[in-house]
Amino acid sequence: MIVLTRFSAERIAINADLVARVETNPDTRVTLVDGSRYIVTEPMEEVIRLVEEHKARVLALARALPETGGHLPADTTRPGLSAVPAIRDTTEGAPGSSDPAAANPFNAPRTK
User: Measuring CA to CA, how many Å separate 7 from each of 44, 90, 94, 110?
Assistant: First the structure.
């Protein structure tokens, strides 16, 4: 999140990953990917710098994490959930099997 200031002096936090566009004419307008627009007091260059710094921090934190071999450590999951996703048995529902719905989940019947 980056913290910006609206013209009403209200401070807002915006998800930097959702910033689609930053414009200035003469006020700085930040547009998010969902179309939300915010007019802020910071100049365009500062908004861009804040977004870049945020993304650099995220990458630095990710690189600082211990190597886990591609799997989450077991203690980071919610109770009752496995840290490694279940692997589906691909022998059933394969092409040519007697269960065509299992081969293509999009053809499965709808249930309420």
Answer: 15, 58, 60, 50
The label of the residue with tokens 């913290």 reads 3
Q: Return the amino acid letter for 75.
A: D
Closest CA to 55 of 29, 19, 24, 13: 19
Q: pLDDT by residue for the chain (112 residues), tens digit each?
A: 999 999 999 999 999 999 999 999 999 999 999 999 999 999 999 999 999 999 999 999 989 888 766 665 655 555 555 544 544 545 554 455 455 555 555 555 556 5
Could you tell me if 109 and 101 are in contact, meaning their C-beta atoms sit under 8 angstroms apart?
Answer: yes
What is the dihedral angle through the alpha carbons of 10, 39, 4, 42, rounded to the nearest 10 degrees? -120
CA-derived radius of gyration, the chain = 23
